[in-house]
Amino acid sequence: MSDYRKIVEHYESCLDRHGDTFRGVDWTNEEDTFKRHQVMLDVVREKDKAVDLLDFGCGAGHFYEYLRQNGFSDINYSGLDISEKFVELSRSKFPQITFYRTDIIKNADELPTFDYITMNGVLTEKRELSFEEMWSYAQNLLTRVFTKCRRGIAFNVMAKAVDWERDDLFHLPMDVLAGFLVKNLSRNFIVRNDYGLYEYTTYVYR
User: Fold this and answer.
1) Is the pLDDT of residue 94 over 90?
2) 5-205 CATH fold
3) What is the pLDDT of residue 1?
4) 26, 98, 130, 151: which could join 14 in a potential S-S bond, CB 3.0 to 4.6 Å?
């Protein structure tokens, strides 16, 4: 089993315990969950025309619910998750929406391109993985995801500037991330550390 499957299994266990709620995708409260949705959405620079957006690691489709409830009709939403449980749940809730079930590490060719790709919570937990294992996975994943965007991607990780670090979370130094982005993806990026949570979100643009 690939090491990152352990992370998938953790989220599936959260769904089994808590159902279709913010706790079912392992967020601690609903207010912060909404805040993350807005920060992810802010990667989109075009405000007056339709864009195609892929919610990578869509879980239970809560980002789509947020977009629909807040009137973002210019976002042509699609979802993707590696978990069969989450994809089946999302498809049952929103049969009109395209949800992909694929492992981009193994099957990148199965996925089309999108204007923007958001990755909310995909790289915040490392569970039993070491930092080195998680960082290797993150670099591989970000490299592949960036090939599927036409304009930009957004993703969050846990911050290092915290009172204490949890062993199961992925606390990534900003300078380490910046070095990787400049060398491998793009020099055109923005780091968001202004929304009050113990994490930061990075937008990487073409």
Assistant:
1) yes
2) Rossmann fold (3.40.50)
3) 36
4) 26
**Contact, 25 vs 144, CB < 8 A?**
no
Angle between helices 30-41 and 62-69 (to 10 degrees): 80
C-alpha neighbours within 13 Å on the C-beta side of residue 14: 19
Kindly tell me the number of DSSP H helices and DSSP E strands found in the chain: 6, 7
Beta strands in the chain (DSSP E): 51-56, 75-81, 99-101, 114-119, 149-158, 189-192, 199-205
For the chain, domain boundaries: 5-205
The CA distances from residue 23 to 14, 16, 32, 146, 156, in Å, are 7, 10, 12, 29, 18
Cα atoms in the Cβ-side hemisphere of radius 13 Å centred on 97:
30
0.85 exceeded by pTM: yes
CA separation for the pair 124, 157 (Å, rounded): 5
Percent of the chain with pLDDT over 70: 99
